[in-house]
Amino acid sequence: MSEKFLAAAAQVAPAFLDLDGSIDIACKWAEKAGKEGVKVLVFPETWLPGYPIWLDSSPGAALWDHPPAKEVYARLMENCPEIPSPPISRLCEAAAKAKLTLVMGLQERDGNTLYNTMLYISEEGEILGKHRKLIPTYTERLVWGRGDGSTLTVVDTPVGRLGGMVCWEHWMPLARQAFHDQRELLHAAVWPSVNEVHLLASRNYAFEGRCFVIAVGSILTREHLPTDLALLNDLPGDGPWMTGGSAIIGPNAKILAGPVMNEETLVIAEIDPELAAKESMTLDVSGHYSRPDVFKLVIDDGKK
């Protein structure tokens, strides 16, 4: 078991649909986290370059051949990075400078398809791996492709094994088990915002997996949106569309820090790996509290 360390959720607003601006913000907050001694820093779902909030709030988002929807999608595509790429290299440099492991929620461009991706960067600034959301949820299927079993990724870090899932993946029982079987100490649960039911799912994951969970959500109001896109200008009201709610949860489901609402901040908690060992005495869903003679999980981990 490693010694105690600090982990943090970066509950901040991106420069919405502005890749370079968002990278600037991420580097600033990584530097701040590093100075505070944080060893693992997690950003929200598709924080780079911003969750496509118009899918939930614009009545024109799904109209066929709708010019405003095409316009905002083109802007989104233009500002989504490939992996690897120069913008991603900047994140790697920031992680190395801050001496922390960085988990970035981003929309990854691969050819002409976008994926909802979690990227893992080491404290040496190396790409450790990525996870693509298996099933975009509801209207998200208008903008993202589906992940596959090749990115059910858990990585080794100096403080322990780290994995993560995106949003409603936390209600996919077999996906949860696939990650539990990889023995996470720390789990990144990335959401647009962490509302009550999202926090419930995150606490359940921590209890079930006997691991620490960083549940992280973003901040987004009218002031964060560009003003030259008709579909965004037609969004009703001024928000907030994302309210944060980030929290850090222990392996007994108790909340260690947060939830914090409507504030740009680092939500920080001390992680004590010994607590995960203590809690595993009564529950290990991949070991003594499993029945492999009755149930078997088969995973196709090939790239599709």
Condensed summary:
With 304 residues, the chain is α/β, with parallel strands linked by helices.
Give a written overview of the molecule.
The structure is a single chain. With 304 residues, this protein is an alpha/beta fold. It has a single domain, classed as 4-Layer Sandwich (Nitrilase/N-carbamoyl-D-aminoacid amidohydrolase). The protein contains 8 helices and 13 strands. Strands 6, 7, 8, 9, 10, 11 and 12 form a 7-stranded mixed beta sheet that branches. A 6-stranded mixed beta sheet has the order 5-4-3-2-1-13. Strand 6 and strand 7 form a beta hairpin. Helix 1 (19-35) packs parallel to helix 4 (86-98). The radius of gyration is 19 Å and the shape is globular.
List the helices and strands and how they pair.
Layout: E1 5-11, H1 19-35, E2 38-42, H2 54-57, H3 67-78, H4 86-98, E3 101-110, E4 113-121, E5 127-132, E6 154-157, E7 160-166, H5 173-180, E8 186-190, H6 196-209, E9 212-216, E10 219-220, H7 230-233, E11 242-249, E12 255-261, E13 265-271, H8 273-279
Parallel strand pairs: 1-2, 2-3, 7-8, 8-9
Antiparallel strand pairs: 1-13, 3-4, 4-5, 6-7, 9-11, 10-11, 11-12
Helix pairs in contact: 1-4
Whole-number tally of structural domains: 1
Terminus-to-terminus distance: 36 Å
| Mean pLDDT reading | 96
Shape: globular
* Percentage of residues in helical conformation: 25-40%
**CATH class assignment:** Alpha Beta
Question: CATH homologous superfamily - what is it?
Answer: Carbon-nitrogen hydrolase
Number of strands: 13
Strand content bin: 25-35%
Number of helices: 8
Main sheet summary? 7 strands, mixed
Instruction: Compute the CA-based radius of gyration.
Output: 19 Å
Return the structural class: alpha/beta
User: Judging by the overall fold, what is the CATH architecture?
Assistant: 4-Layer Sandwich
Point out poorly predicted stretches: none
Q: Provide the CATH topology.
A: Nitrilase/N-carbamoyl-D-aminoacid amidohydrolase
Please provide the ordered H/E string of secondary-structure elements. Answer: EHEHHHEEEEEHEHEEHEEEH
Oligomer: single chain
